[in-house]
Structure formats: C-alpha cells, structure tokens
What we know:
By secondary structure, the protein is mainly α. Among the domains are: 30 residues, no CATH class; 255 residues, Cytochrome Bc1 Complex, Chain C, CATH 1.20.810.10. It is built from 17 helices and four strands. The strands form two sheets. A two-stranded antiparallel sheet has the order 1-2. Strands 3-4 form a two-stranded antiparallel sheet. The two termini are 25 Å apart.
Amino acid sequence: MHGLSTFEPKNGLVKWLEARLPILSFMHGSFVAYPTPKNLNYWWTFGAILSFMLIAQIVTGVVLAMHYVPNSDLAFESVEKIMRDVNWGWMLRYAHANGASMFFFAVYIHMFRGIYYGSYKAPREVLWILGVIIFLLMMATGFMGYVLPWGQMSFWGATVITNLFSAIPLVGDQITVWLWGGYSVGDPTLNRFFALHYLLPFIIVAVVGLHVWALHVVGQNNPDGVEIKDVAKDTVPFTPHATMKDSLGIVIFLLLYCWFIFFIPNYLGDADNYIRANPMKTPPHIVPEWYFLPYYAILRSIPNKLAGVIAMFSSIALLAFLPWLDTSKVRSAKYRPIYKVFFWVFVVCAVGLGYIGAMPPEGGYVLAGRILAVAYFAFFLIVLPLLGLFEKTKPVPATIADAVLAKHGGASAPHTKG
Length: 418
C-alpha cells in the first residue's frame, strides 16, 4: 500500500528538485503519510531496530577496516593494535563485535514475530522470502567476520565450517579449495573472507531496500492479521505514531546494546579467540558464535556428514517455504489456539537446540539434540500442513477498527475465516 503523500514544496530550490527528482515527496509518502495499521504493538519496532543496527555495523565496520590488516601473520596483532592504540578503537571493536550479536538477537525476534502473526501469508510471500535472503546474507557475513580476528576459534571455526562443503558430491572438494584459496585455511582464505565481509553488508542494504519496497506495496501485517479495509478508520499516519514507537524501541534496545559494549563486552565471545591462531593445536571444544548454535546442533545430530549438512541447510531453507507449508486461512496466532501452543513448543525447541549446540557432542546431549531436531522439522513439515485442515479458529474481527474497539471494550463485528 503506497503512502498518500501530501507533500507540497514551498521553497523554489525544492520545487526545482521535485520536478526533476521527486525524492522528498517519495520520502514523505513512505515515512510520514504512509498509512500504518493502528493496532500495531511494540513487536513491530524491531524492523526499525534492525535498520539502526545495520547502519551501526556498516559505520563501525568501515572504520575498523581502515586499521585492520587481512594477513595471516598480522591480522591478530592488528586487532590488538586497534584495541590499544587507535583512538576509541576498543569501543569500535566492541560495538562491532557485540553489534553482530544484537543484530541477530533482533532478527530472531523479528522472525518469530512474523511466524507468530502469520506475516508470511499471501500477499506477503515475496516480502517474507526477501527477509529469508537477508537472514542468509547475515549468516554469511557474520561467519566471515568471526574469522577475521584470526584467533584460535576463528581459525578452527573456519576450518570446520568450510570443510562441510567437501561433503557435497562431485563438486564439494572444488568448492572447499575455492573457499580456502588453497589446500588449507590460510592467508588467501583470510583475504577473501575480509573482502566478502566488507562487500556483503552493502548487498544486504540493497536487499533490505527491496524488502521495504515490497512492504510498502502489500502493506504491513498486524497483530490481528486483518487487511486494511478503510484507510481512514483502520490506519494512522506513520509519523508521528509509528516513528515515536520505533524511537522508544530503539532507545530501549540501545540500553541493552550499550550494556554489553561497556560492561560485559566479551560475554558473548569465546576466550580462545584471544589466543593467536595455531594450526598445530586444536581447541578442546570448537563452537561457533551463539547465533549459529541451533543449526550447528542439527548438523551434529546426524552422524553422516552429508546428511548433516543437508539437514542444516534444509532447516534454514524451510523458512522460505512457510507461506505454502502453512495451510490455515487465519494469519494471527491470536485466533489459532492450537497453533499458539505448537508455536511456543517450536520456540523452546529452537532455544534448546542453541543450548545443545554449545555443549560437547556426547552422552545425553546427542540424544536431546536429535529429539529437538526432529521436533524442529516436524513443526514445518507435519504440524503446519495438517493443523490448517482441522484447527478450529476463534472469530476474527472484520476490520482493524473492530479489533481496536473490541480491545478497548467497544462493539465489534467478528466473523470466522475458515
């Protein structure tokens, strides 16, 4: 749904620009007059939080790149030099490192919100798929960034993850050699990872642009999963209503972000990464960053290497097929009592897989990982397709205005959608 811009330039220079490049009216229509569902809650602020974090990561990353040396003999020392000798280098490094974690924390909440409220359902399939592509690009960027400090966990994490591609039949070995730039993780690997880590965020910006464009075409979903029927009754202008809400959400999120930067900057990292990379000494327990742990747990749950790699990538790829796997005609979990229970079971499974991924692959952890992995796939491949066929949903409001009135004790006109 396009914004209804009422922007009228008063200044002569602005009129001249608008006649040739109507960027100000476009901005006004997209971020001021844009009709926003009036029932949005604070879970919808994470889109703005993610935009802020993307900018913060690019700014801090560009400055760090000015001082970083992508050489296997000098990378570790260059990071230490940034921390000790560059003005505010310690803060830039901690802001960037913890910013990656904050970025993933926000994107996971953003995704869980979308799954809970059915934001992937028609007509928002392309919007959702673009979001999954952004997530994949984030994962690639995060992994390559973790390699750059060239500590023990950086080196061995890169060795383990890139070796996974060798399990692919026929072309696996060639892909692995290409990633390494040779026959083992070394200087060429670090160089290409640095180049790609610098490039990918700008590709993410481009896909985010498409994501926002798709959002403005189909309009925002909302907690009740009801389409806008009457712009005057169902919506409010984006500014000041949504901008004030988003600003508050960003400020609260910044408090958490700053707490990590200034008080516990190494809490989410691994102590082994403060030891220079040593190809001759393997750490006792190799683990990726926390935001990769659920997928790492799925990988380790299957003893066959190729099957484990397929399962790990499938666990992410399944997200793109959500619009077609979910057969229910009702979007929001607010009106799907059984789905709501399964959703929270799914969240517990995802968090549980994250915990298992951080534990040694032995004893009960292996069994628990397999059970949780089966439950993860069952949610997508069994629960969602079947639940829409027999679940009895609650009455859904006819309009957003009815939902708002009902919430505040007014009259409403609910009806059932299948």
